[in-house]
């Protein structure tokens, strides 16, 4: 046991620099991706108005769900198996080939079904204009799945630089094409067409990048396919239910309310996702292959270290961002999107408050699959999705989009609690629950102070003061010295390199 502990420690020190730089690359790409997506939402919401923007949002939601269902967990399975077979080129090539072929076949079938039943989908939402947009989005489904499958090779090999460039290129291309087509007068159809052209362009880039790392191989194709589908189906169930949980609010708003309400809610959820999924998304992308590799080698201490530090500093950064966003909610929405979207402010506040803990835990959410237990994710997500649907059905008719936000916030918090419970009870990972409760309680106190004092102190001054005080508290009370170095290292690579050298020197 001693040699395992020593090996775990040595790998932890060796990987600390790579972990920080991997995160920095992915974080930059996430910032560009979410930032450009956020910019696109601002442009579309202003140019199209709440109604047409709601049409585009519904189409994008249907497209996203379709690609996940059609993918059947294959892209995530490629990441897992490539990480496991990192040094076995023959088996790795067989996995990627099987993933690409099966993903393309499934995507084509799903796209065809979506295209043929677009009219029925539009009738379900009582929005006839939706059918043409859904048909256009259906053409992009197989291309998107092939894209993400090939991208899984880069993620599994932890080639995060190339991986990140793909997202940067895709994001910029989507914004440019969407802006051009909207200006040309194509309305929401132009925005959906831009999505199709972007998938085609980024597929060409990904194919060129993966070429040195991969060659087609039909070796044991049937056996490899069976193995991938067996694992992928379990990942798929977890991911599918998670996605349903994520998009239930938007779909039910479209069904129970109007496309204008969808457009307003899309503004609230867009800001919340940019703020709370960029950093956790970057970290989970790096964590997944790392945890899979460590777990397969029996390095339990290394797995626990990755999970614990990810939650800690995500929690601190996201709670600071959440406090500031809630304090400035009205100003942010009015300045960026216009007065027509001010009814989304209460929903936005509820979403942000409810996603603080969830955002931090989502940075390690895929670890259950990485540790060969995707079935646990499935069970948890089924439970949470059921709770989310019930809450939305009960609250949306009563409170509109704010009710949808409340249902989402409660279900996200429940999901975070269940993931932490499983990590502790099933995998014996020490989770610092007390720190999480402490942070959430402190944020609540500071928010109460803001709402009590904002009529006597200028809101901007009060927001700055409270956020600064809270940031100082969280920095000192929650983070360890190594956490602080890694956070700055992820944000500023040059600083991280200097700091890590000093730490190792000591």
TrEMBL record:
Taxonomic classification, please?
Archaea, Methanobacteriati, Methanobacteriota, Stenosarchaea group, Methanomicrobia
Q: Please give, as recorded in its UniProt entry, the membrane topology of this protein.
A: Multi-pass membrane protein
Q: Which Pfam families match?
A: Polysacc_synt
Which parts of the chain span the membrane according to its record?
21-43, 55-74, 94-127, 133-155, 167-186, 192-214, 235-257, 263-290, 311-333, 345-368, 380-399, 405-424, 436-453, 459-478
- Cellular location of this protein? Cell membrane
Identification of the protein by name: Uncharacterized protein
Question: According to the lineage, what is the superkingdom?
Answer: Archaea
Q: Would you indicate the residue range of the signal peptide? A: none
Per UniProt, the keywords (alphabetical) are: Cell membrane, Membrane, Transmembrane, Transmembrane helix
Mind telling me which InterPro entries this protein's record contains? Poly_Biosynth_Transport, Polysacc_synth
Query: Cellular component terms, GO, for this chain's entry?
Result: plasma membrane
